[in-house]
Amino acid sequence: MAVYLAPADYIDSDHPAVTAQARQLRGDAHRGSESAKAVYYFVRDLKYEGGDFEDLEIYRASSVLAAGHGYCVGKAALCAALARAAGIPARLGFADVRNHLASPRLLAAMGTDVFAWHAYVQLFLAGRWVSVSPTFDAATCRRANVPALAFDGKHDALLQSFDGSGATMSYTKRHGTFHDVPARFLAVEMPRLYPFARDHGITRFQASSGTAAQPGGQQPGRVTDA
User: Fold this and answer.
1) C-alpha dist (Å) from residue 94 to 26, 150, 174
2) Rounded CA gap, 6 and 110, in Å?
3) pTM to 2 decimals?
């Protein structure tokens, strides 16, 4: 379990700004669940904003913290980094998701409503892995007229509502769990998957991430569930 408390290149939980923020969020909490909730809500309500997939800094936790915004991968990296800095083992999960909150312009650019390599976080709490998705901030959810995703510190908070009926986003394919963001992989893979986005003038849109690019578009090595 020690590996999931260790800092990494993009989940840089030893960065001074990250450790300072983790101390502030942890406060006097003596239970992992309370610290986990504080970390989750802090990251969730940072502004959801995309970035250029070829800019590796959008995947780095300390850079997202400094910017005050990020998209799913960067926000997941920050959530994991703050959790590790607060003494909570954390890792990233990646999956392809059906994104019902995407704009018509974005759907036209991507040619699909399935967004590849969406990132979420797994926190080790009370002897088990709990999955959370701190992607969409409360202001974004209000504009979409859907509730923001709540987390009680005990149970999964993974399925974002996308309409008033209680229907949620669906995870169509899981890519496994990772100790760090595969950022260089994602910087190559995402433009490859969505080559027409730039033709529509879109270089900053919602999807997901990666680290070392592999020959032939292969996935980077992953940490399997354990």
Assistant:
1) 26, 20, 6
2) 36
3) 0.84
